[in-house]
Amino acid sequence: MKTQQISKKELTAVKKRLTRIYRRADTNIRLQGLTWYHDAYIWIRETCEALNYNFSTTQIAGVLSALSPQNKWERNKIDTINLLNGVRYGNGSRVKVCTFNKNKEKALQIARGHKTPCEVIKAPKTASFISNIAHLDPSRVTIDRWHLRACFGTKPGEKDVPTPTPTKYAQLEKLTIEMAKNYGLEGYQFQAIIWEQLKKEWNR
After folding, report:
1. 99, 71 contact by CB (below 8 A)
2. What's this model's pTM, rounded to 2 decimal places?
3. pLDDT of 143 higher than 50
4. 113 with 92: CB under 8 angstroms?
5. What gap in Å lies between CA 149 and CA 76, rounded to an integer?
6. Which pLDDT score, from 0 to 100, does residue 70 have?
7. Class of residue 156 by CB neighbours under 10 A (exposed 0-12, middle 13-18, buried 19+)
8. What is the pLDDT of residue 175?
9. How far does the chain reach from its first CA to its final CA, in angstroms?
10. Which spans in 7-164 are helix H?
């Protein structure tokens, strides 16, 4: 049977790994991390206004999240706007996107208002990501594969750790928020700094 919780010993090790990565981040990396979610938040609101409020900010964030796998950030935003406009004018299915077809179908469900983003993409990471970019929610942290790599010390070329259970996700989210407070940051800001630094080290 798989362990349902991360042990106190392993959480201590996670804290040490995250601390080391954060301390390696220079001023430029920290600035990028501090502004990443705020910039995404502003973009979503500007997009909502540009689309004449035909979609909620949560819908826009959900479509963005659905189209994100294997998609570069700037292209992800372009695909999001194109798909939303496609749905708005009745030809969403014809829109080309740079991700998997199954993810496009999820984005279409969200854009058409058939289901909420979290009903379509049932993962704690999705709920956290949407809360972070749509609302700058300080109670949530996006525990993506990069944060998991940082938490568990994965090296380039090694197999990533499995997606955490909801219980383990909550533990990592809580720990990240607590660590962020020690540096005067929100959890999502701390996570973004870790993300930027680790990608730099992995040359990604």
Report:
1. yes
2. 0.93
3. yes
4. no
5. 23
6. 87
7. exposed
8. 98
9. 35
10. 8-24, 27-50, 57-66, 73-88, 101-111, 117-120, 124-135, 145-152
